[in-house]
Design goal:
Layout: H1 2-18, H2 22-36, H3 39-50, H4 58-73, E1 78-90, E2 99-102, E3 106-112, E4 124-131, H5 134-145, E5 149-152, H6 163-168, H7 172-182, E6 188-192, E7 218-221, H8 223-235, E8 240-243, E9 248-262, E10 267-277, H9 287-306, E11 313-320, H10 328-339, E12 343-349, E13 357-361, H11 366-374, H12 376-379, E14 406-411, H13 416-419, H14 432-452
Parallel strand pairs: 4-5, 5-6, 6-7, 10-11, 10-12, 12-14
Antiparallel strand pairs: 1-9, 2-3, 2-8, 3-7, 4-8, 9-11, 13-14
Helix pairs in contact: 2-14, 3-9, 9-14
């Protein structure tokens, strides 16, 4: 009789779980994340015990092993390392100490841009010309630029409400400024930091050197000090500036993407990916960019495990390596998926910080896009109302040619560029509840994709 009662009780519990509505199960996800969530504790360890994680660095290697052990400890069905070759930068730990001087009177805060060549011990000393647009640079021509330092001083547009749109309107000067200036004979470049507020600290980020163009050193200047420099140039067109950097990029070295998964019970060959990038710039701790996305992705799988949810499809959490200065992890993941003929039905990335959830970017494919938007009534009670933008993040973008629907977690963007690529991107800037709400939001959308697919 005791055995019979036990069987009846177990059967009753299974039926009860099966009869939960979508609204009820999403509520359970949020209850678990907000009452017993572990994303904040994970992020604290990643940021304060490991710290900066420039790809190829000891910090990045430590983060790989840490995330592997964490996912194993949570009991995910499979956890493995996916090898990837990454570039190694050196000398970046000196970036916060670099200073950019007007000889004899002014000091401003700079940092080298990612991938920049160094100046060497002699530094760079030259006159400065200021431009805000590519047309202004071209109008100066070789006569106005040769032998000088070009100062790109186009600010992010504060009138735009989505801050990523504002960032997109200014970041081309950081990415391409060095090569465009070098074509005209410049010997160095200063770029206004990618921040909308006036700040005393600089923002780094990658540049792209064009083929067959001389590589010249490039630095970012704090936004407040960009204003100072601009005012000084108005008073004295013959100002000479000096800066010195000692950064270089070494040959590629081995690293890893870290992957954990829950195996699907019905359609295990269909894969849903959720991920963030494990590497960071080494000015700060990489808390918002992108420690938050990594721990939220791990937390999605942990939430399902804690709730006893058995997904129909295979769900993977991927910690991508080398997003900041190469995207090697995302490219390698997509290459391996193609080689193995894997069927990814969706990919979601969290790489916009750990702020208050607002919604998701949606797939470009019409059917998938409208299906995601049809779930808005289920998600609006949790503040998820913005499904207006299309596309996904950088790490999952190499999956696009394989026809994979791409999405992105969309938190409030207003404060992200206060911390992006700076020494200020530290654990104390992340709010526990906001981080946990984001993990729950991602778990909720993945639950719906798992149940209903996107076709």
């Amino acid at each position: 009789m005791r055995y019979f009662l036990l069987v009846v009780l177990l059967f009753t519990n299974l039926v009860s779980e099966a009869q939960l509505t979508d609204e009820q199960f999403i509520r359970k996800i949020y209850d678990e994340a907000l009452a017993k969530g572990q994303s904040y504790e994970m992020l604290e360890h990643l940021c304060t015990k490991i710290g900066p994680r420039l790809s190829g660095s000891p910090g990045a290697a430590a983060a790989v092993e840490w995330s592997r052990q964490v996912m194993q400890a949570y009991g995910f069905d499979s956890v493995w390392l996916q090898p990837v070759m990454v570039p190694i930068g050196t000398g970046q730990r000196n970036w916060p100490h670099c200073q950019f001087k007007k000889l004899g009177s002014e000091t401003v805060n700079i940092c080298a841009l990612g991938g920049s060549v160094g100046t060497g011990a002699g530094g760079v000393l030259a006159n400065v010309v200021e431009v805000k647009t590519w047309d202004e640079l071209r109008q100066l021509g070789e006569k106005g630029v040769k032998g000088k330092i070009v100062f790109f001083n186009r600010p992010m547009d504060p009138k735009l409400i989505p801050m990523f749109s504002s960032y997109g309107g200014a970041v081309d000067q950081r990415a391409n400024g060095a090569s465009e200036a070098a074509k005209l004979g410049a010997i160095g470049v200063i770029v206004r930091s990618m921040g909308v507020n006036l700040e005393d600290y600089p923002h780094t980020g990658s540049l792209r050197y064009a083929l067959n163009i001389p590589k010249i050193p490039a630095v970012a200047i704090a936004t407040r000090h960009a204003e100072v420099l601009s005012e000084l140039l108005k008073d004295d067109k013959d100002l000479k500036f000096y800066f010195e950097t000692h950064c270089e990029t070494l040959p590629d070295a081995p690293s890893f993407n870290v992957i954990g998964e829950l195996k699907g019970t019905e359609r295990s060959e269909e894969i849903i990916v959720v991920g963030g990038h494990l590497d960071s710039w080494d000015l700060g701790q990489g808390a918002h960019d992108d420690g938050a996305g990594c721990v939220q992705s791990i937390e999605v799988l942990r939430l399902f495990k804690a709730l006893g949810y058995k997904p129909k499809r295979t769900i993977r959490a991927v910690m991508f390596m080398n997003e900041e200065n190469g995207l090697r992890g995302g490219v390698e993941y997509a290459n391996q998926a193609k080689l193995k003929n894997e069927k990814h039905i969706a990919a979601i990335e969290s790489d916009r910080g750990g702020f208050t959830p607002r919604g998701f970017t949606v797939p470009t494919q019409a059917t998938a896009r409208e299906k995601v938007r049809s779930w808005k009534p289920l998600l609006e009670p949790y503040g998820l109302s913005d499904f207006s933008q299309e596309g996904g993040g950088a790490d999952i973008s190499p999956l696009a040619p394989q026809g994979v629907p791409l999405m992105g977690y969309l938190p409030d963007s207003q404060r992200y560029f206060n911390f992006h690529h700076t020494a200020e991107d530290t654990f104390d800037k992340v709010d526990k509840r906001e981080l946990e709400l984001g993990a729950a939001a991602m778990a909720a959308i993945i639950y719906l994709i798992d149940r209903y697919g996107l076709d």
